[in-house]
Amino acid sequence: MILKLKICGVSDLKTLNFIVNHNYPPQFVGFIINYPKSKRYVDIFKLRELLKIDKKNLFYVAVLVNPNYNTLEEIKNLPFDYYQLYDCSPGKIKSIKEKYKKKIITAITIDSEEDVKKYKLFLDTTDIYLFDSSGYEKSMSFDHRLIKNLNLDQEVMVAGNIKINDNLENLKEIADIIDISGGLETAGLKDISKIEIFLNKIEKLKYEA
């Protein structure tokens, strides 16, 4: 299995340009759209400027926490490939998918083994499952072993305070896609040197048996 990567919480032009033009870019780049509590939040005006950058072959992801109608209408013409949705009912996700014709990453926040089972509620609407901690902007961890035995038809993305020096081989066993944000930051800002290290590390890991 070739491991894929999503870098989340990109909020400035320098970082986005570096990622898009890297020799080993991630497959996904995420932008925090409607959650101002996050230091990675991007308002609609800045977002429009960021998304003028040619994404080449990357997928752009709008990260949304229970978005309202106004937010969805504001971003509907922006070049997003996926909507990553937190705190949405199955019915709301289905409605968003049908109306806006986007692929869906359903985020399931994990505190216990029981939380993992929530994925069953979204089988009809989800393109990718994201299993994340319940910390949202706080970059908290959860026990990744809780999702080890899942056997899903959809791709599995895993987040939760992943760091550049983590044993990624363990994550490769349980997920198709790694989602990293805070682990690529220094003093709350994306760090180009950490991104460089991590992109090269992922590229090497892709082809290891």
Overview of this protein structure:
The protein is an alpha/beta fold and 209 residues long. The protein has a single domain (4-206), classed as Alpha-Beta Barrel (TIM Barrel). The chain contains seven helices and ten strands. The protein has helices spanning 13-20, 44-50, 69-75, 90-100, 113-116, 168-172, 192-206; strands at residues 4-7, 28-32, 59-65, 82-86, 103-110, 128-133, 155-158, 177-180, 185-186, 189-190. The strands form two sheets. It has an eight-stranded parallel beta barrel. Helix 4 (90-100) links the parallel strand 4 (82-86) and strand 5. The chain is globular. The termini are close together. The mean pLDDT is 92.
Sequence-ordered SSE layout with sheet pairings:
Layout (H helix, E strand, L loop, with lengths): L3 E4 L5 H8 L7 E5 L11 H7 L8 E7 L3 H7 L6 E5 L3 H11 L2 E8 L2 H4 L11 E6 L21 E4 L9 H5 L4 E4 L4 E2 L2 E2 L1 H15 L3
Parallel strand pairs: 1-2, 1-8, 2-3, 3-4, 4-5, 5-6, 6-7, 7-8
Antiparallel strand pairs: 9-10
